Amino acid sequence: MFKHHTMFRRRARSRALAGIAVVALCVALVTMVGDASQASAAACSTSTGATSCTISASLTVTAGTLSLESSPNLYWGLVQTGYDQWASASGATLSGCTAVGSLTHCTGGAAPTLEVLDATGTGSGWAISEYLSSNTLPSGYVLHFDGVGSSTYGYSQDSPIGTDPFSSSTPTNVCDYASSCTVATAATTCSHSALGFTTCPTYPVTVAGTSATAQVDLYSAAASSGLGAICFGSGTATAVGCTGTTPTAFYNLGIKGSAAAGTTSVTINMAVNSGP
To answer: Rounded to 5 degrees, what are φ and ψ at 128?
Structure first.
């Protein structure tokens, strides 16, 4: 009786092991069939159908250009008061300029825009430079490019012509709307001898270049920075063109209290070149 039970258990165990082996074999076969189907998949075709096929995809990004965008006109309106005055440029025509004590107040001012578009994809950095045409500023006038200016365009400050009343600072920048840019970092090594400068700018920069080969460096972006659409401003752009940002690059003009009355037109030639 004891022997019979022992043999029964052995037979049951053998059958169980055999069942497990069959299941394992089936799983292996299914896996092999699946793998074989995937491995043998041919390229997809528009004329031959297939239960599975592969698509080969490629993407080519073509390098763009390096360029800048700026307000096409700058405006100052100063009423002589007998004092030296400084004011930041407006990007829109000023009106209603009147003397208020030693200062000038105008209406209708608007923030100017300055933007660099680096679509080259090289990460070489860049430099914004300028020079004035032959119609230079009258004697005694001073024009500065700086990161700080008047918060109210069309309002002047009284300060000696040799003392810019706006505290000096390097212009800061943010990404334009719809641009996942790499913001610009001011370079510490700059060299464009063909343009007339071999050192990086310190602020305020005196705008006084005289020719295409005697330019002044306004801002140099270090390599691996300034990629994409770069707005010289702070805050967040809400639309393309730096809309919604607060400018951080100002053109500050100073005139003497003895300056002659009249209108002066000056052409500022702007350029952006690869490399800081």
So the answer is: -95, 125
Predicted confidence (pLDDT) per residue in 210-268, tens digit: 999 999 999 999 999 999 999 999 999 999 999 999 999 999 999 999 999 999 899 99
For every residue of 151-197, DSSP letters joined together read: SSTTBEEE--TTS-SSPP-PPP-EEPTT---B---B-S---BGGGTB
The tokens 């012509």 sit on which residue? 161
Please say whether the beta carbons of 86 and 254 come within 8 A: yes
Q: Count of CB atoms within 10 A of residue 62's CB?
A: 6
- Which residues touch 154 (CB under 8 Å, ≥6 apart)? 77, 87, 90, 94, 97, 104, 105, 106, 107, 108, 109
pLDDT in tens, 128-151: 999 998 778 888 999 999 999 998
In one-letter notation, the amino acid at residue 8 is F
Rounded to two decimals, what is the model's pTM? 0.82
The domain spans of the chain are: 2-54, 66-274
Show the DSSP H helices in the chain as ranges.
2-39
